[in-house]
Amino acid sequence: MADIFVLIFVGDSPISLKLQFVITSSKKSMKTPGWFTLNRALSHLRIATAVTLILAAAAMAFVAVRPSSAIAQSTGAQAFPKPMPIPPKKGAIRPAATPTLAPGSPWQLLTNQPPVLDYADCGPGNPILLTDGTVMLQDDGCQDWWKLTPDEFGSYVNGTWTQLASTPAGYSPLYHSSAVLPDGRVIIEGGEYNFLQPVWTNLGAIYDPQTDTWTSVSPPAGWSTIGDAQGVVLFDGTFMQANCCTTQAALLNLNTLTWTPTGKWDLGSCGPTAPSSTLAQTLAVQVIPRSTTRIPESGLRVRIFQAH
What we know:
CATH superfamily of the domain at 124-264: Kelch-type beta propeller
CATH topology of the domain at 124-264: Neuraminidase
Structural class: alpha+beta
Number of strands: 20
Order of helices and strands: EEHHEEEEEEEEEEEEEEEEEE
Oligomer: single chain
Shape: elongated
Largest sheet: 4 strands, antiparallel
């Protein structure tokens, strides 16, 4: 009897297999009997079958652990990045307005805490300062939005909250881009999660504070994802949006709500790109993940996008 041990790594998890084979022989005669030759052939067949089963099991385990990557590599489709974790639950009860602050803390607690609808699964997040001085707040991951209005003395600490219109039906993003547009409207695009499900959605919407309404924004042509990609308002007021899962970016016409592609960033495959606004240009800086052990030989790679 012979034992064969096989160790297969799927990601960082090893899988060990042990195979046992029975090897028979005959010492009674120097002449090899026919039954032994047949038995040896069957042993070879069993070994070949076992190896085939091992490879098949390894392939199935790999797809189970990394389904998106495996399918993408086999079909040429885009691969989704690993989703960021959903924030821990904040408790179903709204926190008290007067917890104890550390001595000398520069922070001041709001007299009126955000009355978001779902403190259990979502919670206050993504504050946006609007052009009229009010603060827009999302119930992160849920559809309800709120506005903090300062009191008559301009104090946000003693400000009051008003519920705003909820995002359009079917759109409840978490980890998305957002920006205040030159005309005072607010745009949100994408979302790594939608209704707390990791889908890297390509949905988007614009909020008009004058009418307290949301208008859905269709994605750029051919985009199946936007996810948690970056967005930025350029110097001329144009909104620029990147794609989480490709090297694409596009410019939004705020009058027609249509997109114009800018071309690909083409910064390599070491990590995502992060566009940021300058006076007349947009600078895309490559972000090196912490897991990367080698910095590219060319150093920090950047790409300048010239709007005009």
